[in-house]
């Protein structure tokens, strides 16, 4: 059985929802951030960066949400197009785009000590915000011409990842839902039973959409 080390509403949520979508049995192991468990010697053995998610699958232990997502979709041959196809190339591009462009902006947004600040100067905060909104614009343009999902008509695990990032913008001055095609994709993902189950299991309430 899979073991997912998680913290509610964080980067582990995409993997949690994916495991539900894949109908795989899994055990959730809460990493208590308030108690600093992510930096405990025991957890650092699993991920030297002290971050969730970590997935343990028998002798396999893997961290980095994108790597875990690719591992699981490949292993179960689901929620990803077949290898070597045009659709698969687009899928890989979308995952790489999200994790190389959007994810770091959010990491800096939520973790100012990463950039050496207790609290950001206004100009830096505004720049991060602008970086995020310009990515929303690019994604919205793409979904407007070839949506409603990141692979056009085909729902995939990439949509779960994008929805998680959109959720993280919920308390920003401009949220991802201000862009109509992003709102449409978020609504499609949030109407899935897996989203409801995720919310119940993680005890989430904000930005439920149901
Ligand atoms: N690139 C990593 C980022 C993981 C990450 O930043 N996780 C955050 C939660 S969203 C975390 O564990 N933070 C705890 C900490 O940094 O102390 C991934 O996608 O898995």
UniProtKB/TrEMBL annotation:
Pfam families reported for this sequence: GST_C_3, GST_N
Domain GST N-terminal intervals: 1-80
InterPro entries named among the record's database cross-references: Glutathione-S-Trfase_C-like, Glutathione-S-Trfase_C_sf, Glutathione_S-Trfase, Glutathione_S-Trfase_N, GST_C, Thioredoxin-like_sf
Family annotation (PROSITE patterns): GST_CTER (PS50405), GST_NTER (PS50404)
Domain GST C-terminal as annotated: residue spans: 84-207
SUPFAM superfamilies referenced in this protein's UniProt entry, alphabetically: GST C-terminal domain-like, Thioredoxin-like
PANTHER family tied to this protein: GLUTATHIONE S-TRANSFERASE FAMILY PROTEIN, GLUTATHIONE S-TRANSFERASE-RELATED
Name listed for the protein in its UniProt record: Glutathione S-transferase family protein
Organism of this sequence: Rheinheimera tilapiae
């Amino acid at each position: 059985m899979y073991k997912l080390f998680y913290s509610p509403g964080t980067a582990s949520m995409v993997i949690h929802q994916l495991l539900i979508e894949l109908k795989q049995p899994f055990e959730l192991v809460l990493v208590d951030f308030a108690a600093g468990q992510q930096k405990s010697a025991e957890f650092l053995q699993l991920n030297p960066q002290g971050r969730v998610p970590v997935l343990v699958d028998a002798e396999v232990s893997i961290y980095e949400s994108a790597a875990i997502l690719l591992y699981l979709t490949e292993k179960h041959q689901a929620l990803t197009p077949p290898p070597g196809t045009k659709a698969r190339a687009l899928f890989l591009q979308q995952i790489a785009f999200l994790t190389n462009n959007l994810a770091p902006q959010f990491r800096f947004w939520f973790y100012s000590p990463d950039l050496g600040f207790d609290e950001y100067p206004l100009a830096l905060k505004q720049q991060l915000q602008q970086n995020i909104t310009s990515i929303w614009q690019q994604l919205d343009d793409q979904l407007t011409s070839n949506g409603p999902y990141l692979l056009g008509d085909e729902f995939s695990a990439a949509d779960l990842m994008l929805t998680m990032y959109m959720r993280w913008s919920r308390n920003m001055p401009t949220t991802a839902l201000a862009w109509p095609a992003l709102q449409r994709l978020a609504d499609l993902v949030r109407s899935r039973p897996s989203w409801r189950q995720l919310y119940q299991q993680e005890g989430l309430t904000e930005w439920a959409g149901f």
